[in-house]
Amino acid sequence: MAINHGRAAAVLLAALLAAMVLARVASAQTVGTTSFPGSTGAIAFVSVRDGNNQPQVYRMNADGFGQTRLTDETPGINWEPAWSPDGTRIAFGNFDANFEIYQMKADGSDEKNLTNAGATDQNPAYSSTSNKIAFTSDRSDSQPDIYLTTIGASGQTTELVRLTTSDAQDSYPAVSPDGKRIAFVSDRDGDDDIYVMKAAKESATNRPVKLTKNAVNDGDPDWSPDGRQIVFSSDRSGDSEIYRMKVSPEGRLNKPVNLSKNGAVDSSPAWSPDGKKIAFGSNRDGDPEIWKMRATDGANPTNLTDNSITDFDFDPEWQPLP
């Protein structure tokens, strides 16, 4: 089954996605997949529009123009887009008969099922090379864990490695820009917090370090392009907000900074590859849409999609360019 981590934007879609309730997707968090250093290109995002009541992956320019649907070939629900480090491909989650990880070119062509395992595979995040993807799966013991796999020349995954091995729900990986660390969400201490560890098997010498220390749910981690900070969502202020902090345990000398400061539901932050902006989902105008703001202080929030109230836009991910 899908992993339930209280994803704020998806909660707003619950009425439209009633068919997914049995899979507990209506409140799933998306990941904050990985940002990589480089110029800022297009933004991939998920939308329910055009008379289609199922989420599909779209892309648009960084200014909100040129909104185009990409997932035309794969039936079912398509979401959780993640850009490859070279900006030429997009991995995404699909739910039709099963939860699978797919990959397509940046223009939406050449869609391929990468996992095709019959398990619940979701939350893809590329590593620092375009042939490795971290993702969440329950294939080992019906408990979600983080896996890392290599994409072979045939388009199928090989060299599958299970990274987390706890009895908790570990999900929503985000790989550091250098590929050496993985941030992820886990409820191993009783509520959803963000952890980080080396991009290798969990062991006595590679124990996940807990970054966020709060009694509420924290999720949606995404790395800054220099690998020194993360941006994430949290309801610690009473509503879902976007926060920024150093990649070290939360404490007196490392207090998360609230960037969104709005009474709406703000979630799914994604750092721009040039490090200057953060895209995020928000319903502050009455319906879920894609916004961007300044990464340092959250200033100048700008609505990028600004569509009909019958449309639902969420899950932004920024394309890196060389």
Topology:
Elements: H1 8-11, E1 39-48, E2 56-60, E3 68-69, E4 77-83, E5 89-95, E6 99-105, E7 112-113, E8 121-126, E9 132-137, E10 145-151, E11 157-162, E12 170-175, E13 181-186, E14 193-198, E15 209-210, E16 218-223, E17 229-234, E18 241-246, E19 257-258, E20 266-271, E21 277-282, E22 289-294, E23 302-303, E24 312-321
Antiparallel strand pairs: 1-2, 1-24, 2-3, 4-5, 5-6, 6-7, 8-9, 9-10, 10-11, 12-13, 13-14, 14-15, 16-17, 17-18, 18-19, 20-21, 21-22, 22-23
Detailed description of the structure:
The protein is mainly β and 322 residues long. It has one domain (8-321): Neuraminidase. Helix content is 1%, strand content 42%. The chain is built from one helix and 24 strands. It has one helix at residues 8-11, and strands at 39-48, 56-60, 68-69, 77-83, 89-95, 99-105, 112-113, 121-126, 132-137, 145-151, 157-162, 170-175, 181-186, 193-198, 209-210, 218-223, 229-234, 241-246, 257-258, 266-271, 277-282, 289-294, 302-303, 312-321. The strands form six sheets. It has a four-stranded antiparallel sheet, with no helix packed on it. It is globular and about 50 Å long. The N and C termini lie far apart (37 Å). The model is unreliable at 1-36 (pLDDT under 50).
